[in-house]
Amino acid sequence: MAPTQYKQILFNERPADQINATTFRTHLAPFAALVPGDGEVLVQVTYLSLDAAMRAWMRPVKTYVEPLAIGEVMRSGGLGVVLKAGKGVKLREGDLVSGAVGWTEYGVFKESQLRLLQVPTGAEALDFLGALGTTGLTAYFGLIDVGKLKAGDTLLVSGAAGATGSLVCQIGTILGARVIAIAGTAEKCKWLEEELGVETALNYKAADFKERFKKTLGAGFDVYFDNVGGEILDLALTRMKLKARVVMCGAISGYNSKPVGLVNYQTIISQRAELKGFIVYACSSFPHPTRTHTFPVRFRFDYAAQYPAALADLGKWLAEGKLKRKFHVVQGIEKAGEALPLLYSGGNIGKLYVSFPSLSPLLTAY
Ligand SMILES: NC(=O)c1ccc[n+]([C@@H]2O[C@H](COP(=O)([O-])OP(=O)(O)OC[C@H]3O[C@@H](n4cnc5c(N)ncnc54)[C@H](OP(=O)(O)O)[C@@H]3O)[C@@H](O)[C@H]2O)c1
């Protein structure tokens, strides 16, 4: 039976530093108002993706997207199931879709803003928000295009037990690199070494970190995939081989506070190194085996035209069991605001999601 009301989480107040209890507020909206018009569908959201970049969207400055407006439904990618299709729509009831759904239990969306999904062999629906979504594409293009990783290279990865970093480590191994990982707990380091197969994982919170870092890096790295910026980036700049490449993916250490400046940057000159940024921001899809129609997606971000080829590789590696993932799932949309800070405290292992425990029977297939 349809509910009378549904929950949305609104962006309520710009945090000065850490996300807190007043950053978001819950809004109850009438379900009866959700009527899909021409070219629209009603979607029940099943999973939300929580991403480190969300903190950057809260600042009152334009980045690669507009800043969040106060009162806006919190922006996020998610998965959902089509409950009702409006006129002239190709999507059907029960279709699994992904899109920028936001923190809401239900919503009416333009069909053109959604992607029809079919879970490929070896994958799960959640992979469309992970290995087969923005996260996987970020790891893929960061390593292959920005980092120009070659077999035999030494690859250093920070934020290595997170969503992006854990895929970077494994793609690095697939491409024949020697992988050295940095993460914030002994448990994460154990997972990286014993299950993901990195050569060495270093705990940056351990007292002997700098000493172990220097010893392990030895002659230095060819590629550093930087997810964290700040002090770890500065330390890494002291261990670059000649013509090293630093993949500037993210700088999470500076998202909640004033970023720390670099001191060791003169090595960039002496080592003829390259530091390069890039942005992947994808609404993921995967070729549907029987439904040939696709929906237009506006490609505004780096590499968008190359997504299909990258997804084919990522899908193949998943099917071959070469990409292991941890799904860190927090239950209930009302917990999303408490769960998001886990990314900044290091409370997550692998990809962080919010699930909706009260699924209707229609949705249990997913
Ligand atoms: N350029 C792009 O297009 C793009 C796309 C996606 C993501 N990103 C970036 O990739 C990075 C990872 O994002 P994600 O969504 O995959 O999150 P994630 O890695 O799953 O989670 C963030 C991790 O960062 C680590 N961390 C937090 N604060 C830290 C600090 N001060 N110093 C060192 N490590 C810290 C934590 O692990 P520990 O326990 O190890 O501290 C935490 O688990 C972010 O910087 C994000 O902005 C960039």
UniProtKB/TrEMBL annotation:
Keywords, alphabetical: Oxidoreductase
Span of domain Enoyl reductase (ER): 25-354
SMART domains: PKS_ER
Pfam family, one: ADH_zinc_N
GO molecular function terms noted in the UniProt entry: oxidoreductase activity, acting on the CH-CH group of donors, NAD or NADP as acceptor
Protein name as catalogued: Enoyl reductase (ER) domain-containing protein
Species of provenance: Antrodiella citrinella
Residue ranges of coiled coil: none
The UniProt record lists the keyword Oxidoreductase: yes
Gene3D superfamilies reported for this sequence: Medium-chain alcohol dehydrogenases, catalytic domain, NAD(P)-binding Rossmann-like Domain
